[in-house]
Design goal:
5-stranded mixed beta sheet; Rossmann fold; single chain; 8-stranded antiparallel beta barrel; 2 domains; 5 helices; about 350 residues; elongated; 14 strands; alpha+beta; Porin; about 25% helix
Length: about 350
Amino acid sequence: MTPSAIAKTPRTRGAGVLSVLSALLVLAGSAPVAAASRVLVLRSTSADALSRQASTLLTAELQTAGFEVVEIDRDPTHDLRDDIDTASARHQPVATFAIRSVPGGTAVELWLEDRVTGKLVIRRVDVNPGPSAAADLALKAVELLRGSLLEVSVQVRAGSAPATAPGDVARFVADTAPDRIDQFAQGVGIGAGAAALGNTRVAAAYAPLLRMSWGAPTGTLLRMTATGLGSAPELRAVEGRARVHQTLVLLESLRVFRPRKRLQPMAGLGAGVYRVNSDGAGVSPLFPNGAGTTTGLAVGANGGIAARLGNRLALVVDLNLLLLTPRTAVLIATREVGRTGGLALMASASLCGTF
C-alpha cells in the first residue's frame, strides 16, 4: 500500500499545478494590453514610383518599430496641409507622414506632423538615383520622426514642461537616441597616447602613455596615468656612457569645465610614483659596467584641454608641472653627467574613450 500511496501523490500535485497555470493563463489573456501608437502615412494616387515605394518601405519600418500604421490614399488635387490636418483630426495619430515629389524628379519633400510635440516639419531631400533610393528615403523619414520626438527628452532634461508621450513612443526615442553626456570623460574611460617627460639635467624622454579614468556628471574626474618603456636619454663621458629609463605613474583629481561644449578645459592636482633606472657601459675594463635604480615621489599640477570628437571620444592634450623627488645623480665612473628629479614638465596627447 505504501508504494501505491507514493505513486498517487505526484499525480495529485501535478494536477494542482496545472490548474494554477491554467488560471494564470486565463488571467493573462484577459489582462488589458496597451494599444500601439498610431502613425498615418498619406499616399498620393498620382505619386511617382519612387515616392510610392518609399511610402511602402516607410510603413514597414514604422511597423517594425512597433507602431500601428494606417495608410490613407489622398487626392493629389487637394492641399496637402489640409489633408494632413483632416486625417490627423479624424484618426488621432501620434504622427502623420506624407512623401511628395518635387517637380523635376531630383528631390522629394518629407512632410511630418508630430502631434506629440505639436509641430509640422517639412524637409527637402535630394534623390540619389539607384536601387537603394527608396530605402534611403524611408530611413530618412524614420530618423526625421525620431529627431522630432527627441524634443520631448530635451524638454525633460532642460526642466521645462514636457509633452506627454505614450510609452512606446518614449521607448522608440530612447532605444536609438544617442546617450549624450556632458563631460568628455563622464563614466569609466580608457585612453592611449604618447608623452614627453623633460628634466632640467636630462634630455626629454618619449614614451607611450596609458590612462584609466572615472568621471562624474558634475565635472569631477579621477584619473590614473602611466608612462614608460619609451626612449632612454643617453649621457656620455670620456669613461663611458649611461642610459636613463624613466617610469611615471600618477593618480590625479581634475575638474572639467564647459559641460556639453566641444572644447573642455580641465585642471587639477596629482601625486604618484617616479622610478629611474640607469645602466652604464665603460669604454674599457678599467671602467666596469654599472646600473642603479631609484624610486621616489612625484607631485604636481595639471592643465589641459579635451577636444570632443564624438559623444564618448575625445583628443586630450595635457601639460603637467611636476616635482620629482629625490634628486638622483647619474655617474659615469666618478663623474656626474646628469641628474634626475627636481622640477620637470610632461606634455602628453591621448585619445580617450568612455563607456
